């Protein structure tokens, strides 16, 4: 039976082991002193707390390049999510099969949600139609939305929205790259200001006679 110690988990998570044990105690998992935690049981407890031990039907609205890529993503099933339906407003897409699922027309969105007991919707439409799709999802009973459209959605209280903006994520990475480039650049050597010339050398020639008619060769500045 594979086990893991709180020290190993804390090191991997970058937290204090005492705090980790306290957090795990809220899950009802105390582990065994000198042995650690049963990995399989611990994963189950965390998954149960996160709501990942049940089947969550999900609809994806907008089956363009991004929507099709999401439909083909193989990680949903292992985390407790099942793509129940693919929906698009383009009539030429209706009836096509993507990731083994037949695309359905947006006209039947409300009935599809009701038939599948869907509470989570994914929006992968263009920005211009995202709010309208959101309103229809909410009206049909969807209470959680994952939004990939490049726009901010307005939803009533009680509806959760998570926005995934790929351009912002890239901007964050670009910022970190800029920071790393600045840290790696060699520091410029500080150059001392030029030393002031000796007072005796600060002279200037006069080429014109003074008031008394004498023409000194040099005179102090």
UniProtKB/TrEMBL annotation:
Q: Provide the protein name.
A: Redox-sensing transcriptional repressor Rex
Protein's cellular compartments? Cytoplasm
Q: Does the keyword Ligase apply?
A: no
Known NCBIfam families for this protein? Answer: PRK05472.2-1, PRK05472.2-2, PRK05472.2-3, PRK05472.2-4, PRK05472.2-5
Alphabetically sorted, this entry's keywords are: Cytoplasm, DNA-binding, NAD, Repressor, Transcription, Transcription regulation
| Recorded superkingdom | Bacteria
- Function field: Modulates transcription in response to changes in cellular NADH/NAD(+) redox state.
Q: Which residues form the CoA-binding domain?
A: 51-152
What protein family is recorded? Answer: Belongs to the transcriptional regulatory Rex family.
> What positions does the entry give for NAD(+) binding?
62-67
Region described as Disordered: spans on this chain: 179-221
Q: Which organism is it from?
A: Streptomyces daqingensis
Gene symbol here is: rex
Q: What's the subunit arrangement here?
A: Homodimer.
């Amino acid at each position: 039976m594979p086990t893991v110690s709180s020290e190993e988990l804390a090191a991997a998570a970058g937290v204090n082991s005492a705090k980790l044990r306290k957090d795990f105690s809220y899950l009802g998992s105390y582990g065994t002193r000198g042995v650690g935690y049963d990995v399989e049981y611990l994963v189950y407890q965390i998954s149960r707390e996160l709501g990942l031990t049940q089947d969550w039907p999900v609809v994806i609205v907008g089956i363009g390049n991004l929507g099709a890529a999401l439909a083909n993503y193989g990680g949903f099933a292992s985390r407790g999510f099942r793509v129940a339906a693919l929906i698009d407003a383009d009539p030429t897409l209706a009836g096509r099969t993507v990731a083994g699922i037949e695309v359905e027309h947006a006209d039947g969105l409300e009935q599809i949600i009701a038939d599948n007991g869907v509470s989570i919707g994914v929006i992968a439409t263009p920005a211009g139609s995202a709010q309208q799709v959101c309103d229809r999802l909410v009206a049909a009973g969807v209470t959680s939305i994952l939004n990939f459209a490049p726009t901010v959605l307005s939803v009533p209280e009680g509806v959760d929205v998570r926005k995934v903006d790929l351009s912002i994520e890239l901007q964050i990475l670009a910022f970190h790259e800029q920071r790393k480039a600045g840290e790696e650049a060699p520091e410029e050597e500080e150059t001392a200001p030029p030393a002031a010339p000796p007072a005796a050398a600060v002279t200037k020639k006069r080429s014109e006679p003074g008031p008394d008619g004498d023409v000194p060769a040099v005179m102090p500045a």
